[in-house]
Amino acid sequence: MARILVIDDNADLLQMIRMLLEGRGHHQVILSAEGKEGLEKALADPPDLAIIDVMMPGMTGYEVCRRMRQEPATANIPIIILTARGQPVDRQAALEAGADDYMAKPVTMADLLERVNSLLAQKPARAPAGPRGGVIAVLSLRGGVGATTVAVNTAATFVRQAPERVCVVDLSPSSGHVALQLGLRPEPNWSALGLLSSSPNPSLMRNYLLVHPSRLYVLAAPFVPVFESGLTPQLTRMVVDMLRQSFDTVVVDLPSVLGEGVMAVLENADSICVVTTADQGSIQTTIATLQVLKAWSSRVRLALNQIVPGGAPPVDALQRVLKQSFAAVIPFDEAQGQALAQGKPLALAAPTSPLAQGVAQLTQRVTLGAA
Amino acid sequence: MEEIKTAGWLAADFFSHNYRISGSIDIRKKSLYDQLNDPTTGFVMLQDAYISPIDRPADIIATYEASYMTKSNLTLALVAQGDDALGRKQAFGSYYGTYLHRVFLTVPSIEVVGYLRLSTRVDLRRLLSLDTEDFIPILDARVCASIRPDVVFTGGGVLVNKHHIGAFCLTEEK
To answer: Are A84 and A48 in contact (CB under 8 A)?
Structure first.
């Protein structure tokens, strides 16, 4: 027998649901005719499941749902939203507010009881709230040094060890190339997140992710460049926080601009991988970048990426100039051109290739854990 | 009060140029079609009205126990069941309406695709000008916000205010 809280301003419906859940479901039912009162009841004595109407005077069901998700005591309680507003956008809004299920009125009592029992059966499998996975931010303030290649191959290296547990995020507002390098069409992408009317929830985030055949998840950048920096800093932080709740490793390919969104990711990243090449311009930018990141120097890892063929780079000299050792030197790999053309990252297609080995060295040097 | 609500109130979505207004309308005496086309009143009363901007149609920005809406400013009304959008003379089992005509039409901020049910072939002059009814029923309707094509509403019926129609296109006939 479970304790079920039902919040609806329709007195008749409340009584019908009570009769159903008590009579046929053998559950204990707590009723409330107002959103605010229902929320207070939920917080005072958390139920096993809540059924909430959306359209209630005062506090709407969405708001009740959001507040319950914010409180640790009620954050993991299964919630069914029940409403007369039955359009697809309303279903989306209910899930965004944190509901587990959504039913449009009129509903049959048999369907309602089935959903209730189904959610109660799933309850033990619900994931605990709070940050879990590690975040690796990949950054180069100079474009064209292969930062996206490093980000994609880093994620690919991790996913080989843990399929389903890795996500790569492309935050470029200028037609990012993460999806391209993985041979994926960037639909959906994060542009849709900016249109959400409220905070997305972790389970809903999966709707915005692409899945690579290697079981690597991808939050792609929109194909068409967007104005300014794309996602707001607040939404960027929220998205990365949610992804780290669902994945062991989140690799974020950052744009080459130190905007507020980029800073939000850097602040919360476990490791910051700064990618550079050996040319003079790139080294100058990297020196300046390291100065900007000085406060987070313990989390910064330098990667020297050879993007053109030639002899061995003057690693020691470069380390002296940069006043920091390289975590990895990624050699030039002639197979990379073909990998880009085919959308097959070398870390997956040729794990023993020089580039894949260099990236593997980098992944061993990054730190994952609470930032 | 609650007994009355469950017995004779119809949940519907009403649209003006910029807003989606959801709530319940009393249809004990007349169908929604008949109420909207009743020339003796210029407004309809909605109980438990929930108001959302049309570009954020799931965002409830205001709620009111009662809301009066001016019919002339409504662009359309959307209901789940097609029969609720039909007048008494068009109800199931009547002779009225043996032809289904697929139509595409626009009202401000909104595009509608669905079926016109008529007893004859379409006479646009009659439909849009001569007929006295202001609201035209479109069945199996798909309503889409022009500025947010990803925002789609579906319903068994939609009543479109013909005075707000911009484009009216017959796309095929059945």
So the answer is: no
